[in-house]
Amino acid sequence: MGTGATPMRRFILYACAALLLAAADKGQLQPQPKVAIEPRTKAADPGETRLTRPNIRVDTTLVLIPVTVTDPLNRFVTGLEREHFRVFEDKIEQELTHFASEDAPLSIGLVFDCSGSMGAKLLKSRQAAAQFFKLANPEDEFFLVQFNDRPVLTSGFTHSTEEIQNRLTFTQSKGRTALLDAIYLSMNEMKKAHNPRKAILVISDGGDNSSRYTQSEIKNLVREADVQIYAIGIFESMGGRSRTAEELSGPGLMTELAEQTGGRHFPVENVNELPDIAAKVGIELRNQYVLGYTPTNSQRDGKYRRVTVKVVQPRGLPPLRAFWRLGYYAPLH
User: Fold this and answer.
1) 244 and 126 in one domain?
2) Helix (H/G/I), strand (E/B), else coil: 146
3) For residue 314, is the peptide bond before it cis, meaning its omega torsion is within 30 degrees of 0?
4) Residue 41 domain-assigned?
5) Residue 304 is inside which H or E element, if any?
6) Is the distance from CB of 229 to CB of 199 less than 8 angstroms?
7) Does residue 127 share a domain with residue 79?
8) Which of 41, 77, 84, 126 has the smallest set of CB atoms within 10 Å of its CB?
9) Residue partners of 194: CB distance under 8 A and separation at least 6
10) How sure is the predictor about 289, in pLDDT bands with cuts at 50, 70 and 90?
11) Distances in Å between the alpha carbon of 73 and those of 21, 197, 279, 320?
């Protein structure tokens, strides 16, 4: 009996293989596309297309949006499910086909102000960066742009937070403030990122007074980019010394850039708060939901689509607030 079983099994295997090949030739077997967000390991539903781009990610069939949810005390709200979110594109509600809340690896650029007015604030700003790096994951990568009269890429992408902090140790305060140029340089460097999610953290004490690029140009740039901007603005109190027009416009500029990209701006008057706020930004980046939908508007016209996210209020919780990127450009052709 044992000597006849092996040939029989071989015959059955050969027969099955022949049937499968015949079916494939007739088009009866079609590979099923999948959707996945790294480091998600569970396969998504058949019929969706796998993507590799971060933040609002768009291909022919799927838009993915990172969302942060907070309570009235500005604490992060985790544990929400798909049914707690509604998404609208150009005021038309979309059907959510994807939902995730994993902590994916990050590519982060630190944009660090070392202009003349930062002198007494440098120590706490370095401590803020150190606190932010404490929350890093092994797969995260970072670069450093420092700026005064002009921006300089001090360190390209690295997994070593110690390398970034060593560079900051030798930072000296001098010159004017080319904040917009620094953001432009950072966006350009971010094109080399390896991780699916990208963010920039700006630590600065005022408005721009030395850039070649205009506010309008940078606003258009961040609107098109796939990068969240977080800003910690160290500002004089309203009752403090007289401020220049650029310094007065600084908080509004940082807020607009951050909110446009789904990030946030944290204004600070007391420099002792810097490390805690930097840690808060790090925690927020690791407590985001990712919502996905196939747009009902299938036109590939390259036009800007406005996105709105609403939280369906769970019972027993205080009013919740969501933060998300405000829109994206549809693909062309």
Assistant:
1) yes
2) strand
3) no
4) no
5) strand 304-311
6) yes
7) no
8) 41
9) 107, 141, 157
10) very high
11) 61, 26, 16, 10
pTM score, two decimals?
Answer: 0.75
Q: What is the pLDDT of residues 72-112, one digit of tens each?
A: 998 889 899 999 999 999 999 999 999 988 778 899 999 99
DSSP states of 23-73 as a string? HHHTT---PPP----TT--S---TT-------SSEE-SS-EEEEEEEE-TT
pLDDT at residue 24, rounded to an integer: 41
Whether the Cβ atoms of residue 37 and residue 196 lie closer than 8 Å to each other: yes
Q: Which of 261, 292, 285 is nearest to 51 (CA)?
A: 292
> Do 96 and 113 have their domain in common?
no
End-of-domain residue from the set 271, 306, 321: 271
**Residue 167 host element (H or E):** helix 161-169
Please calculate the CA angle 104-196-192 and round it to the nearest 5 degrees: 135
Whole-number Å distance between alpha carbons of 234 and 266? 9
Structural domains counted in the chain: 3
**CATH (domain of 254):** 3.40.50.410
Query: How far apart (Å, rounded) are the C-alpha atoms in residues 53 and 248?
Result: 36
**Res 157: pLDDT:** 97
Q: What confidence score (pLDDT) does residue 98 get?
A: 92
Domain membership of residue 37 (yes or no) is no
Structural domain of 95 = 57-102+288-329
In this structure, the answer to whether residues 133 and 257 fall within a common structural domain is yes
Answer whether residue 9 is part of any domain: yes
**Pair (189, 227) in one structural domain:** yes
Asked, for residue 45, whether it belongs to a domain, the answer is no
Helix, strand, coil shares of the chain, percent, nearest 5, are 35, 25, 40
Q: pLDDT tens-digit profile of 233-265?
A: 988 665 555 556 566 667 888 999 999 999 999
* DSSP conformational letter for 232: E
Residues 178 and 261 placed together within one structural domain of the fold:
yes
Task: Identify the band that residue 322 occupies on the pLDDT scale cut at 50, 70 and 90.
Answer: very high
Q: Which two tokens stand for residue 280?
A: 């808060």
CB 56 within 8 A of CB 328: yes
